Known about the structure:
Elements: E1 2-6, H1 13-17, E2 29-30, E3 36-42, E4 48-56, E5 59-64, H2 70-83, H3 91-97, H4 120-130, H5 135-149, E6 152-153, E7 156-160, H6 165-169, H7 173-180, H8 186-197, H9 213-221, H10 228-237, H11 248-258, H12 266-273, H13 280-286
Antiparallel strand pairs: 1-5, 2-3, 3-4, 4-5, 6-7
Helix pairs in contact: 4-10, 7-8, 9-10, 11-12
The structure holds a DNA duplex.
Amino acid sequence: xxxxxxxRPPFSLTAVICSHGWVQLAPFETDENHSTIETVxxxxxxxxxxxxxxxxxxxxxxxxxxxxxxxxxxxxEQKVTWMLDLEQDFSTFYALAANEPKLAxxxxxxxxxxxxCPTLFEDILKTITTTNTTWGGTKRxxxxxxxxxxxxxxxxLSRRAFPTPQRLAAADAEALRRECKLGYRAPYVLELAQSVxxxxxxVEALKxxxxxxxxxxxxxLAIKGVGDYxxxxxxxxxxxxxxxxxxxxxLKMVSNEFYHGEAIGRKEVEAIFQPWGVWxxxxxxxxxxxx
DNA sequence: GGTAGACCTGGACGC
DNA sequence: GCGTCCAGGTCTACC
Length: 291
């Protein structure tokens, strides 16, 4: 069956797909032109479905081989709308960016939307697996989590959804360390999964626009394994751009672009983008570093 | 508030 | 093939 969703213009699915490396992490898949997203999703009903998302006039189409109940369809619509940030309005940022040559193409290419996972739980876990490792390591860890603990697609048992908190909560730290090569992150992942599964921590509530960014950051930092970089990365994913995710790559890029390659720290990065105010994280994210 | 050391893995390198 | 070194953020203890 097919579902159609509208997006606030300008919109480009390819721009969302290429917004960062998330599409390379299981269970996301894309085609060689980065024009579609395939993913496997475990729904609240317990059904596991495969979704194919493509761009169409004014929005996206979603294809599911399995027919969906009304409740399943509503959940798919809500999750895809969130994942692709279909309702976001970037007109204020585009007006500011038009005066900056390194950002002037943002509006023309409909850049700004950052690909999200269906749940913030998944985004947090994936962000933790990006810390203190290489991108190759991140991809291995996430693939192993999906293959070991994700629910299988009935029509193709080799394809799995990202594990729910409940599934991960039933694991033990040693197994996560051994099977998924999470290393010292294993107890952090387990603690988060168990807190969410037990209902002690409602991470999905952090998607709320009512929470001030400083409070939201405080709550993210309270999660074991989430430090300054991870919190800023998650804030950008959540559509809050007041902080810059400063990692070693950021230091290198900003140093080369603004400080003649000198050794710099987080404060120097923040000083460059501070004039962008509530948009500084997005200005940093979309900056054209190609020179 | 700032700093040092430990955490863990994989890749690069030298032997 | 083996051992060593290093890169990558966060946590904890300490000053």
